[in-house]
Task: structure prediction
Amino acid sequence: MPIKSPQLDDLRFRPLFEQLRRQIPMYAPEWTDHNESDPGITLLQLFAHLGEQIGYRLNRLPEKAYIEMLKLIGVRLRPAEAARTTIALLLGKPELSTAVTAPAGATIKARGKPSTFELDAPVNVVPGQVAALVSTLSADLRDLAAGTGAPDPGATAAAYLETRFSLAWDGKQPKLKDWPQQPVPLFARPAEAGHDHLWIALAFNPAANAGFLGQRVTLTVQLDDDEQPDPRALADCSAPEISPLAAAGVAYTFYRPPRPGQPTGAWLPLPIIADTTDGWTRSGQVRFDVPTTLGPIPDGEWQDPRAVAPKTMEQICAEATGTGTPMPAPIRHPLIGAIKNPVSGVSSVVPISGWIAVHFTQRSSRFSLRALTFNAGPATNAATVTNQLLGRGTGLSDQTAQLPHGNVLTGTLELAVEDPVDLQLHRWSEVADFDAAGGDDRVYLLDPEAGIVYFGDGVRGRVPASTRRIVALRYRHGGGKDAEVPAGEVNQPQSLPSAIQDAVNIVAARGGKDAETLDQAKRRAPSALRTRSRAVTADDFEVIASETPGVRIARALAVPLRRPLVVGGEDALGLDVDTVASGAVSVVVVPDEPGPTPTAPESVLRTVCRHLDRHRLITTELYVVPAQYVRLFDVEVILVAKPGWSQVNVRDSVSARLERSFHVLTGGPDGKGTSFGAVIHHSELVAEVMRSDGVERVEQLEAWFDGAAPAPAGEEPPMRWRVERTVPRRLTGCPTSPEDTTALTLFADENVFVDASTLNVIVRD
Result:
């Protein structure tokens, strides 16, 4: 809805006068002449007039003046923002399919929610899909001994293949549609440390007119690591963008079957048009033209690591009498018979349509895949409306037209107005204001939150002619926080071509925001005027980071003159708080997510980084980093409870109070989050326990703190933060050893949380 001026009082002359006249019989029954000529009636009219003036002045109080100022400077309520994701479209039998187009606007519904997502653009679905994934030590999939050595006579098949071959995915488990929730690990086992070659088995339709061979395709690589919270992650906004033309750290090849007269096929270089994966270290896309000669590996080219010739009669007799040397058992190529979902129509011991290889030259770690697909496209939680009549023009200045739906997505409204001369619909353009518009310019303003279209006055902006149609040719509306769902949850296709068997979101749907309220707009206005869309001061960086589109950032903290910590040439945990870095700014961001330690994954950091990069000064060295956390654990409280409170109820009350009061989003005196870099005294914990319902008196309190996430006993913590917090220390009111302290001093990028699972509340009588 648009910003409306509040009516603090509705005093008006006529209603007020009538109300006063109705009171006459109650307070002056002897007064019987209520005509206009009566002097008493004249006095009532005077009082009603004065009352109306009082009401008028009451409505001019600062609240109304503030809102009028917002309207004057052009502050409008922001519309809801739509959650966005990427959808992978999966074929049942790609080898039997042909290319098909999934149209823009095709819908996929989220499981268990009313949220529906639309494809933002048409997706050309090619009949090609990943059928298996293999990693090897050898640079030739056909011969595992090539360059790695033949097996020793006494080596078993399992021992020999352990370090030379791994079937990372057999084509069946998990199913392709389950990858987003069950990522496929690559190079995960210690025995695979030397594997530098990834072989991608493909299932595709080899027919020339099927739409795969010879086509330009985009292979979407979605890493699970990009979407996982990582306290080591950072985004360097000053670093140059990765060139999509250079495939750093990797080389691509494909298998070409033997031509007539050739004994074997060959692995040939695969020309890459663009590669944004930075050597498969981040999610991205690999774009190339599918070679027309791509095909399967013939049976005769699969080399067994140990092929044993048929036994001679002498060998058989020697073995029978125990006088000969036993022949070693054969070791067959492990791919033969290992593909669990063979490609139809491929008569081979390894039924695969074709192979593409990724050869790593700088691989340093393992990673997991959420998706590896040729058929993926962006989708938005929105609904598309077309050809909607909004009304007819009046010929007057400053006309408005109301869209049936508010929360219009930015840049999606296509508006047309009927021309009074040729009676045809002509498109009008959206502008930010009418300042530069002429009297004949077909332009309009849009309030996307309210869905109101504003037209000019004939001097700045053309006026829709009388009785002429105003038509919304197309627009998209929607949005809201409720549409955010994890990866793998948008999986119910509703209007896709029948050839597409499944659809699933390969990244979490993020960026959904509810429409702005009036109070939020009032709080935003001063910062909007201060920043003026440029990041100079620390406050500027924090405000602009918090407003990053596409993600929900609950808090942002700009730490000037500090860079991320580097130890031994490698990125470490947290900021380097001891070294002054002139011209550097590190922005710590906290996503709007549940849990005690909301941590932004690398993909969110890069999104914020790209947004800030458009607003920073060119000389600013800018980094975006996640928050570091300190855990308060083994909190032991000895207290006296109020009458009627059991130990269980008191413990629940204390636990809820501590978790809420020492939290990055809900802690602090104002409930907006514990301050970064704060000093937390032992007495503050005591005070919060005292404020808990059911607590009469606190007799003793002790706690420990470190930099590790909670974990079951005996297990490694799933996450660790700054190395300074490796050794636990005790927070107490009476220190008795060097490890004890009365206050916890947080670093500039640190916040705190309470591990309630270790809370121990002892209630004394």
